Amino acid sequence: MNVNSNGYTYTFATVMVVLVAVLLSGTSLGLKSKRESNVKQEKMQSILASVGVEVDRSEAQAAYDEVITKVLTIKGGEVVSEDRETGFNVDMAKAIKSSNMEREVPLYLANKDGESFFIVPMRGKGLWGPVWGFVSLEADGNTVVGANFGHKSETPGLGAEISTPMFTDQFPGKKISEAGIFQSISVVKQGTSSGDYAVDGISGGTITSNGVNDMLADCLAPYAEYFKNI
Questions:
Q1: If both were cysteines, with which of 73, 119, 124, 201 could 108 make a disulfide (CB 3.0 to 4.6 Å apart)?
Q2: What span, in angstroms and rounded, lies between the C-alpha atoms of 218 and 16?
């Protein structure tokens, strides 16, 4: 074969592209289970962190199995499933597309040092992409114990601050209902929050703060009727 011909060049390029594609595809498939395991463990870490249990990723599964006693699936204020895997695997990105009372959402029941807690998952929209998190409540289903939030691409030093203690440390002790009526927790202009139902937003991160505000109202609402009943 004439190695200087166009045909040889095109053939060589095609073979190399196919070979690289096969190698990349094989590598991706080989790492798929590892990626899925890492995502699962990181989710468990976030769930546990909302009740103050901080563990390394390698310890997440064992700690989760010990602390999380049940995983319920809630719809319209009623329990529709008590299967742990069903609840854990709910896709919140899809769930929030349904109306509050029509969506099926997970509720994690935890026990830490003999005390019972509820953990509610969050999913919403920030400035540049999705935001998410977990809010834990005391056994009264009303008083916040802790919260943590994550994001895909919020601006460092601005909206990304929702994942820092400066923001999350405001949540313990806040309430989500008053006299049985759902109130949520408002994220307001920095320096203006007061009382049991508001926290300060991020200075310079107004759109992200508004996104968290809307996420809290939207994602806590489906549980309000369940907590009211108990």
A1: 119
A2: 50
Q: What pLDDT digit, counting tens, does each position of 5-38 carry?
A: 666 666 767 878 878 777 776 665 665 577 788 8
User: What region does 55 belong to: left with phi over 0, alpha with psi -120 to 50, or beta?
Assistant: beta
Residues 6+ apart with CB under 8 A from 10: none
Bridge-based pairing state of the strands 198-200 and 177-178: unpaired
φ, ψ for residue 114 (rounded to 5)? Answer: 80, 0
Q: Which residue bears the tokens 């994690």? A: 108
Cα–Cα distance, 176 to 187 (Å, whole number):
13
Phi-psi region of 184 (alpha: psi -120 to 50; beta: other; left: phi over 0): left
**CA–CA dist 162, 150 (Å, integer):** 7
Residue type for position 67: V
Quote the mean pLDDT of the chain: 91
Tokens of 4: 């200087």
Burial of residue 165 (CB within 10 Å: 0-12, 13-18, 19+) is exposed
Q: What angle do CA 203, 204, 207 make, to 5 degrees?
A: 105
Q: Which two tokens stand for residue 128?
A: 């540049």
The residues near 29 (Cβ < 8 Å, ≥ 6 apart) are none
Among 138, 104, 110, 100, CA closest to 220: 100
Amino acid in the structure at residue 197? Y
C-alpha span between 133 and 122 (Å, rounded) = 5
Predicted local confidence at residue 34, as pLDDT: 75
